[in-house]
Structure to design on (467 residues):
């Protein structure tokens, strides 16, 4: 890890300490007195890229190796091929448990936030959430009947807090030995998604986050003969017709890592006729702002939407310092949600950002042009800005293949070819102000290079320049 990364981490931790009075009522906030507890080590294993269904089809067969405990957290839950695949995995785990001579069950905890508009409107406002009785598993959640899951100690919980506080994190933990961070929900959307697989001390940090919010101390000790990590290997799907994601290996070495929670907030702080307020100083928000403020050469962002005012200001400042910025986002994605939670759309924000960039460009030289002229005055140099919109690939016949992602839902940030941030957080107003999010920051040039190359290969032919 470089000196600049160490300086970034120290500055971020100090910012959280200085502003801890703003987050003393956040839930969770167990790190408030010592943000360094969020810093850890992880070993990234691989990155899977494809549609949400193909990503989960890649991960779920691996989960069949679970022996004692499976924690599955997602945001949106809907009847879909992904849900069918999850149901099949649950039945597989059930059969494994029932075959044991000791009668021990496999503990499964499923957590989500949203099923439907009706569910959200009438959901309990308690952050303890709602635990679904067995009688509703099939009728409301489209899971197998309880009699087909008797080998599981299964609990299903939802948490949503009006008006906009959706619990947006997505992660899976098997036997507290391996974790996955998918960007996809359990739903039908055919979107471009990603999922990183992890091992190492990061698991303890993720379990702590789950215990403080979802688990409410529901965390028994696992048997000491828990599953060895080499049991969780990539396994081919049992169905030859099942679409799986493209999985790209990552450098399997321990690297500096930070878990970045972002608690939900009920007050959206709308100010239609005033300047936007600062975002809540959550670990994720504070880290991203420090990361962008410390960027020296490059920022790459891939995000479903782009409506966060603090982010847009940070990008303008980075451009003025000479940082080159590349963004991939979408057009017309979840328009109603954007208008309700942000009062604007990605396309409008992109136009404003480009307009301000052109104004900045008219007064200063662009970094690449400056180098060609041999100019060395940094104060006269601005960075380049490239914004692209995701577009699905067409077949030779000009049609879109049924398995082709139609939008990009990947959440990825890479800064200075060294710091990688993956997780659930979008670069939109909802993620920065009201939703609960969970991100993970990795400090590794090797990982940054491998992730960028993998995403670049998968994104080839899937984007167009904005106007």
């Amino acid at each position: 890890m470089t000196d600049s990364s160490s300086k970034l981490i120290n500055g971020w931790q100090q910012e959280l300490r200085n502003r801890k009075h703003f987050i003393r009522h956040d839930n969770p906030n167990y790190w408030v007195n010592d943000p360094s507890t969020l810093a850890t080590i992880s070993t990234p294993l691989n990155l899977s890229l494809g549609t949400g269904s193909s990503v989960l089809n890649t991960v779920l067969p691996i989960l069949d190796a679970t022996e004692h405990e499976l924690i599955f957290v997602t945001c949106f839950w809907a009847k879909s091929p992904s849900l069918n695949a999850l149901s099949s995995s649950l039945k597989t785990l059930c059969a494994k448990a029932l075959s044991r001579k000791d009668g021990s069950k496999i503990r499964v905890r499923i957590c989500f936030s949203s099923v439907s508009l009706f569910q959200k409107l009438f959901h309990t406002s308690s952050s303890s959430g709602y635990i679904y009785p067995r009688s509703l598993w099939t009728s409301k959640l489209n899971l197998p009947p309880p009699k087909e899951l008797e080998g599981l100690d299964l609990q299903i919980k939802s948490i949503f807090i009006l008006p906009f506080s959706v619990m947006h994190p997505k992660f899976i933990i098997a036997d507290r030995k391996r974790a996955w961070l998918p960007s996809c929900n359990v739903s039908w959307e055919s979107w471009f998604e990603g999922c990183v697989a992890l091992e190492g001390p990061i698991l303890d940090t993720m379990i702590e986050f789950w215990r403080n919010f979802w688990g409410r101390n529901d965390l028994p000790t696992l048997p000491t003969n828990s599953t060895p990590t080499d049991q969780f290997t990539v396994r081919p799907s049992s169905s030859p017709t099942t679409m799986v994601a493209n999985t790209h290996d990552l450098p399997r070495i321990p690297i500096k890592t930070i878990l970045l929670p972002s608690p939900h907030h009920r007050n959206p702080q709308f100010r239609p006729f005033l300047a936007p307020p600062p975002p809540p100083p959550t670990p994720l928000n504070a880290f991203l702002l420090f990361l962008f403020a410390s960027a020296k050469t490059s920022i790459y962002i891939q995000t479903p939407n782009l409506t966060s005012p603090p982010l847009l200001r940070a990008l303008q400042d980075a451009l003025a310092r000479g940082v080159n910025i590349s963004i991939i986002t979408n057009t017309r994605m979840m328009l109603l949600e954007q208008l309700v939670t942000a009062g604007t759309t990605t396309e409008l924000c992109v136009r404003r950002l480009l307009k301000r960039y052109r104004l900045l460009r008219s007064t200063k030289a662009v970094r690449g042009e400056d180098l060609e002229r041999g100019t060395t005055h940094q104060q006269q140099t601005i960075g380049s800005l490239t914004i692209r919109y995701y577009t699905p690939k067409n077949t030779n016949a000009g049609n879109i293949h049924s398995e082709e992602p139609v939008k990009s839902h990947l959440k990825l940030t890479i800064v200075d070819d060294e710091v990688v941030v993956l997780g659930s957080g979008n670069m939109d107003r909802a993620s920065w102000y009201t939703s609960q999010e969970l991100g993970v920051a990795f400090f590794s040039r090797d990982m940054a290079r491998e992730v960028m190359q993998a995403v670049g290969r998968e994104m080839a032919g899937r984007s167009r320049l904005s106007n």
